[in-house]
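User: Fold this; tokens only.

Assistant: Input:
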Amino acid sequence: MESVIVIVVLLLSSAYVNVLQAQQLPKFQQPQEQAFPSATPPQAITPASAAPQKPPADAVFYREISWSPDASRIGFSLMQDGKWNLYVMRADGSQLTKLTNDPNVNYYAVSWSPDGKQIACSARQRKDPKDAKTDIYVMNADGSGIHQLTTDPANDSSPAWSPDCKHIAFISDRDGKDHEVQIYVMRADGSEQTHLVKSATHDYDPQWSPDSKRIVYYAEKGDHQDQVWVVNADGSNPTLLTAGVGHNIYPSWSPDGKLIIFTSHRDGPENKMTIYTIKPDGSGLQRVSDQQTSFARFSRDGAQIGFLLGGYPRNAIYVMNTDGTAVKRLTP
């Protein structure tokens, strides 16, 4: 496990963000994107010689959420009993279904296919953490028929389907000069894997525009000032959207393509991440809600926003209207 921690430290120099919860709720910490997470993510970067921190027995930690195309279901990965697995539930929190249950594999980074028939994810073997690497897999929406797409010796993670169902964007450290995690694209069958964005930063969380013509992502260079960028689907014209202000993470598109939602502490102290939207040309920045979270996603029908509230080792999935009203907790 110590070797896994070393890998994570080398890859991510600013791996976690501490966040305080809103007024009536308990304090919490929320981690930043972890490109290739181990089964027990630490609360902060620790020296390579430090022993890994074991999560409490009652730890329940959600890493991300992915809405189904008809907005009726939510997929997510959950760490419980030190293991990561994939789940699906109804959008009201009912009918929880576990999709994976291999004691030797951790599964995370859920992405629903545009036709609702499949789910892409990342997976890492638990048997030998020293040699384990993360790869991308696809399974049927009921958890059956899982098959592997990437086999590169490097780490591949964070898959995202293009809305036209033809491609999957992902991140990898295979070509980075100094182990940078960067954006790649492949065909949905795993072929034609292409290095899309070449930069001196770590680039995370690629998300396609509704017309499949652009990809939004965020870049990190170790200064705790992550920035949101958008690039054409062929890798041309990378454009900074967030003007170098604040710490901005987990961007994604609204269903109509008119807005990009992300989280940031640009208007407040470093420990308060809240939800913002911005137009794809970088104009029209607006704070959506005072709800404090590092991860938020529009539902596919544009009626709600799903977000995570809480921090390692315990958090929960919430939804609210797009104007910030009617906040509802979906998970225990």
